[in-house]
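Record 1 of the preview.
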Amino acid sequence: MPPLPAHTIQRQRVVTAVEEALSSHCLVVLTAPLWRGKTTIARQVLDRREKRSLYLRMRPGWRDTADYLWDDACSRLEAQGLVDAATLKLIGFPGDDARMYRCLAFFREYLSASPTLLVLDDYHNANLPALNRFLENLVSEEIPGFNLLVLG
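->
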């Protein structure tokens, strides 16, 4: 195997750095160009954690059909064990204040029950101000045991 270029960071060092960051910060953002191993790093972090975890890859098109994609995302999270994801579907995409506060209340209750790591992969596909606002509010809740790892 040829040696790595000098500017390449070894994946294990990045995994360790992400784990350390998650131990002291609610929000961790990992950015790198496409095809540089962000998803692999996140998977390794998830495999090594004892916390409950939810993984959501943001699909292209969030800007155009947020309600449909919210429903799809809730279905995928439900398949991973998100209790009462049907309730979250009924609330709908948090595009206005009323739905945002209902979604925040849902997550506050859900995340308080057990430490949870939520990974949002390919977040660049979700360039939606209302979703950004919701996540900002979720992080500012400072729910004990909750971490958000954003890959972009």
